[in-house]
Each structure stands twice: as structure tokens, then as C-alpha cells.
Amino acid sequence: MRSGSPPVPDGTARVRAVSRTRLWARVSRWLFLLPALVYLSLFFGYPVVKNVVMSFQEYSVATFYTGAAPFVGLRNYTTVLSTDVFWQALLTTVLFTVGSIAGQFVLGLALALFFQRRFPLGGLLRSLLLLPWLLPLVVSGTTWRWMLDTDSGVVNEALRHLHLLSSGIPWLTGTSEALVSVILVNIWVGVPFNTALLYGGLQDIPARYYEAAKLDGAGRLAAFRHVTWPLLRPVAGVVLVLGVVYTVKVLDIILVVTGGGPAGATQTLATRSYELSFQQFEFGRGAAMGNVLVLVSLAFALVHLRADRRARNT
Question: For residue 79, how many other CB atoms are within 10 A of its CB?
Fold first, then answer.
């Protein structure tokens, strides 16, 4: 080796340098992820774990003074699941979710297909369509409660002026009408979300596919069946899963419009959990009901994902 030239590292030193570089690369990745992990742990992980632990405790108002919350095992779950109120709330949750998702998706898809055409002020109308989604749900619920009032609501007034009925429909006081009312309100709130996502999915479908279908003699219905729907199915699956997860836990709309009444006709698992925790102050039972709500939401999502997987394989 000539004098003055830098020493050439041997094989061991070279391996150590490579190992240090790889180690630092791994550490740097975790450092970039650290803020997100801390955020998720504090604002998502801890509440979930705390809620699960609380569901196995006798946690009440006295706990805040004494600090004692003895473990009771599965007693909170057995108490919650053994009541007739739970099964009625579960049925209402299923009806509310299925009705809302069906209405939101069908109307959202219809509007997305409508706005796919180019016409004057189309962009402005799409922007205005987002207003129900942007409004606070308390404001939307209060407005609909006033509109659906049996005596002075504008809905019954319009039906009377059109001579479609002689007496007002008890939208908020009838047991069956109240459930229909909250479903309609939730559809109104969720249609813009469905329309926006489905419209984006439609824009990603290449126009040449429709041109090829038209050359083959396919009409609008055939083009939708063989071109639009197969290519839109992944987006539709995401929309349905997100809609189910959101709808199962809807609370504010029902509380504002009907308060869970009349006679528990619009009480869902979400409103029942709220009632147990913040009206009866049975926090342990409320946590148990909340965990059941999470499991029901997961069951809805898994059923849809499995059905979508089967549809893709056929």
C-alpha cells in the first residue's frame, strides 16, 4: 500500500458499517412512525382498553368518590343481554341500518350517475348537494324535528294542501312512523357522502369502455350492468362498509329527532348505551353495551366483505 493513501477497511469493518446503516434505517422508520403511534395509543388504544376493562367492573357514580370499581366478571354482559330492551334495540338497529344504507346507496348512486353527464351548473349543484353532509347533525335533526311536527310541521301542511291526507301523520309520535322518520332523516344526511364517493368512482372508469359497449349494441342498462357496476364494485364495497360502520353507531340524530321514543320505538344499541352510561349512570353496563355495539358493527362489515368476496369469485 502506498504511503498517504487511506486505509482500506477489512471485511469485518465493512460488515459492521453495513449493519449500522441498516440499524439506523430501521430506527429512523420507527421515529417517523412514533408521533402517529403515540396519537393512536392515547386517543384510540387507551379508550378502547379502558372501555373493555370498565365493562367487567361495577363502575358507577360512587366510583368517582370512593375509587373502588370491583370486578364483576361477565355480570354486566349477562344483565344487558338478558333484557327484552336489548333485543328490541338490536332489532331496531338492524332495521335502521338496513333501511338507511339501502336508501343512501340507491339515491347516492342515482345522483352520481345523473351528475356524470355534463350540463350547465352541474358543478354548482354537486357542491350544493354536500350541504346536508356539512351541516352539524344537531342542526339537521332540530330542523327535521320541526318539519315533521304533527300539528305545525311543514311536511303535514304540504300534504294537507295537496289534499293527500285530512289529518296529520304522527311522524314523531307513532311507533312505526317514528322509526321511518329517523331513517328518512339519516338517508338525507348520508346521501351526499355516497354520491361524492360513487361519483369519484365513476370518473375513474375509462370512457373507451362505454364506446366499445355502444359499438357492440349495448344500451344504457346493459352498459351499466356489464361495464359500470363491475368496475364500480370496489368503490361501492368501501361505501357500503363505511356506511354500515357509521350508521350502526348513529346517536345524535335519533336523540335530537325522537329521543329514542316513543315507547322505545327508535331506541338502538347506541342510544341504549348512552342511556345506561349518561342517564342511569351505570357506566359498567354502558361500556358492555358499547362493546356489543362494536361487535355488531364488525359482524355487519364481515358479512358484507364475505359476500363481496364470493361475488368476485363467481
Answer: 16
Per residue in 73-119, pLDDT tens?
A: 899 999 999 988 999 999 999 999 999 999 999 999 999 999 888 87
Tell me which residue of 106, 94, 127, 133 sits closest to 236, measured CA to CA: 106
pTM for this structure? 0.85
Cis before 230 (ω within 30): no
Spatial separation of the C-alpha atoms in residues 23 and 20, rounded to whole Å: 5
Residue 15 lies in a domain: yes
Instruction: Tell me, yes or no, whether 48 and 80 share the same domain.
Output: no
* 3-state SS, residue 259: coil
Please check whether residue 178 is in contact with residue 172, taking contact to mean a CB–CB distance below 8 angstroms.
yes
- Same domain as 296, residue 154: yes
Q: How many domains does the chain have?
A: 2
pLDDT in tens, 203-259: 988 889 888 888 888 888 898 988 999 899 889 988 988 898 889 989 999 999 999
* Closest among 63, 99, 134 to 287, alpha carbons compared: 63
Range of the domain at 141: 75-313
